[in-house]
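Researcher: I'm preparing a figure for a lab meeting and need a structural model of a single chain. I don't have an experimental structure, so a prediction will have to do for now. The sequence is pasted below. Please return the structure as tokens so I can convert it later.
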Amino acid sequence: MTTRTHWVLLMHPKEARKVRIGTGRLTHLSLRRSELHVGIGFNDHPRVTALLGDQHLDCRMLYPGGTHLNTGAYQPMPGRIPVFFLLDATWPCARAMLRASPRLASLPRITFDPPGPSAFSIKRQPRAECLATIEAADACLNQLVRHGHERLPPDHDGNLLGPLRKLMAIQQRFPGAPPALATAPSGCRDSAPQP
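Model: Understood. Here is the structure written out token by token.
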């Protein structure tokens, strides 16, 4: 999918080992205008530094405690390309990443209301509102479309959750699989920090 928004996925090294079930990697592969970087501290990361210093970009961090997408409070800066940073990590690891990256921690934050519980049943979420990375990106994208900040092609179904649904369908074929949700919610993220 091609979006106006540029997505920067910052993946904790622990998540990078989950090659087959990492939803951060699925998110990156699903969004043409995305990039993925692995690490903990990004203050001196060359690409992140370049993005943060580019005056043509409007950089934001998708993390709780910021401007709320659902209410329409988020307004992109005119004439700048929106860039959303997403942390692909567990909550404790994401907090460690922000502590190690003061420049990222100081970015304006955006947040959203989770559309429902995570469909990523392979992984136990610490709270009902925690989502897999791909679910968080989808929820964010849905709100951007809803408020006129994004346009998707008419033939697109409007979500990124197809790969997650396929992954969960494969998982359900094996003994001891967690129970599947009746319907997969449209929202996103790999136990990554969500509102």
